[in-house]
Design brief:
Main location: membrane
Low-confidence stretches: 164-170, 287-302, 315-321
Number of strands: 7
Strand order of the largest sheet: 1-2-3-5-4
Strand content: 5-15%
CATH superfamily of the largest domain: Transferase(Phosphotransferase) domain 1
Keywords: ATP-binding, Cell membrane, Glycoprotein, Kinase, Leucine-rich repeat, Membrane, Nucleotide-binding, Receptor, Repeat, Serine/threonine-protein kinase, Signal, Transferase, Transmembrane, Transmembrane helix
Largest sheet: 5 strands, antiparallel
EC number: 2.7.11.1
Oligomer: single chain
CATH class of the largest domain: Mainly Alpha
Helix content: 25-40%
Enzyme class: transferase
Number of helices: 13
CATH architecture of the largest domain: Orthogonal Bundle
Mean pLDDT: 82
Radius of gyration: 20 Å
Structural class: alpha+beta
Family: Belongs to the protein kinase superfamily.
Amino acid sequence: LLDATNGFHNDSLIGSGGFGDVYKAQLKDGSVVAIKKLIHVSGQGDREFTAEMETIGKIKHRNLVPLLGYCKVGEERLLVYEYMKYGSLEDVLHDQKKAGIKLNWSIRRKIAIGAARGLAFLHHNCIPHIIHRDMKSSNVLLDENLEARVSDFGMARLMSAMDTHLSVSTLAGTPGYVPPEYYQSFRCSTKGDVYSYGVVLLELLTGKRPTDSADFGDNNLVGWVKQHAKLKISDIFDQELMKEDPNLEMELLQHLKIACSCLDDRPWRRPTMIQVMAMFKQIQVGSGIDSQSTIATEEEGFNAVEMVEMSIKEAPELSKH
């Protein structure tokens, strides 16, 4: 791995995150991999590291980035992953010129569904169930077919198992994606992941980053969308998408409704990722979103799901397309 990265030279560096740096490398057999060099943490237990790696290594799904191997040499901990050709959704979506790819709505929809499917697998099919804890667009990678692959699952748990002194912010999310309940209690849950997924879905719909002072000032994307839902909902959507096909508005509204249900302030009102997949299916079969799959309306105050439902009802002519 040292040879393949030229001694972890900066030229091989393709990304950095809360858990360490990522390098691109070509192995002797010609295969291209991504190598994550973990940050050094105190009290790093070999047993915990090996146990977590063995667990993560067994998890295989077409919408997850597979861990191919790992090694530990002295203080170094290296993880070897399959290389993803197009990098992260964050880079491709928010810097399309640099990425050289234009994400039209059909590709964005495919990415949204793929990321949801990967997260649903972690929540419902893995034993024990895995809470991601840091779902965000930079942790949704895109393979050569622009298929979404969720990455970094298990990382937060691995780090907390090895070092109890890591800051909560490292263990429980990234600004703009953190659910409100994490600020009251530091207990992570699958419903916290659902909230973070809702933010990723908003990014795909709006083309905006979750935090951007130029766009939102002190607010964030979630707050901005909730404000605009009271005014002109069509202004929320990425104007590139609206230019692409003016008839998309009905479908975008239906996806916005899913995002808003994921972003309910109260975790118990959010859908599970399996329910999110069912909502996507309902849109695909042309039945819209069944009222049973929406989140109950709030007794008082603003409810984004309600506002989006009203917009769908007010645009019956769009449903013909």
